[in-house]
Amino acid sequence: MKITHAAIAPRRNRSKTEMTDRLLADYVERSARYTPCEAQLFDSETSLLEWMDRSSSRTPAYAILLDSRGQQYTSEEFAAQVRRLRDEGTQRLVVAIGPADGWSAGARQRGNLLFSLGRITLPHQLARVVLAEQVYRALTILAGHPYHSGH
User: pLDDT tens across 112-142, in order?
Assistant: First the structure.
């Protein structure tokens, strides 16, 4: 299963994004030890959805959209979701952060799972890092790696 960390490009403040870009790249690199992984930015929600449709192979990309109205999981529950997708033969998993004003109704319908990091509000770039860390944590849980101590 290949994992793509996708995001709609926020308005960039270069000094504020360099650090979060490095953290994101670090978690993507760590995740790639377990499964192919990449990060991509898109100019718009439409371009992301079109890319997902074009990049599907035998099966459509499975899209987990970060949304404040989405399902909340513990790290173990999120790892179980990733395990289920992997075991069911999902070829591409897209975890995506949408535009600042939220996903459109059409995008929410296209998404397979709406996922929330909780009731807090995070800056766009920080949310990308937190989501990437949770994907990495899920992969380490599935591999039995001690990174996640269960606390």
Answer: 999 999 999 999 899 999 999 999 999 999 9
Tokens of 105: 């109704």
Cα–Cα nearest to 84, from 113, 54, 44, 42? 113
CB–CB of 20/126 below 8 Å?
yes
User: Is 111 within 8 Å of 97 (Cβ atoms)?
Assistant: no
pLDDT along the chain (151 residues), means of 10: 93 71 97 98 95 82 95 97 96 94 94 95 93 98 89 58
Task: End-to-end CA distance of the chain: give it in Å, rounded.
Answer: 27
d(C-alpha 39, C-alpha 67), whole Å: 19
- Other C-beta atoms within 10 Å of 22: how many? 10
